[in-house]
Predict the 3D structure of the following.
Amino acid sequence: MTGIYNPYSLSGKTILVTGAGSGIGRATAIEASKMGARIIMVDINEAGLLETKSMLENQEQDHLYYIVDLCDEEAIDMMVKEIPVVDGCSNNAGITKLTPIQFITPEEMERIHKVNLIAPMMLTKYLLKRKKLARPSSIVFTASAGGVFVASPGNAVYATSKCGVDGYMRTAALELASKGIRCNSVNPGMVETPLINRGQVTAEQHEKDKENYPLGRYGKPEDVALATIYLLSDASSWMTGTALKIDGGLTLK
């Protein structure tokens, strides 16, 4: 009896997931494990990593985790030296802070850009230098609808970091195509993660904002994770350089 045909399977693949301690990164790690992948999780939060690890399926795969400050280039390199060759990488680590333009500081810009933009650039660099990306393989960057497709007040620094991610993704896709390494991004609208519930926006303001979404709700981490799995899988083998919107229809308005 033959198995069920599944072009989205990650069976036999090793997938590196950053920001795996919570939110979209956690959902991506969990869903990828359900699709048969061995998961390598990266986050600065050990408690979050341990919780995610306990939620993974196929525990016989010997899933790994690394506590890494992705703002530390040396720490990234040390981690990359240790890990096995990976078939895919999902970059999810990210931070944000709403700040009106006149109050933006260089320190805030540096902090957000280090995590959101420079970290995935450096991780990609060392995966290539250390020959830790299989050929073929797939890199997925979590960008955002915010800044790339739509603008909102107070979001300038975050928006520029995510526009940078998409710009970097397209260049990497062009440079790495001959090596069989595909690069794409997912660009979510607002997603229900701890990142959006930090007190800068009230629950009432969030409910009002949902009226901007034709599908009537914010996204769930799994909505983004499943799109990421498509891009990691062989089902998307002829896709590279694509910024995939996952926004509940937000940008239709």
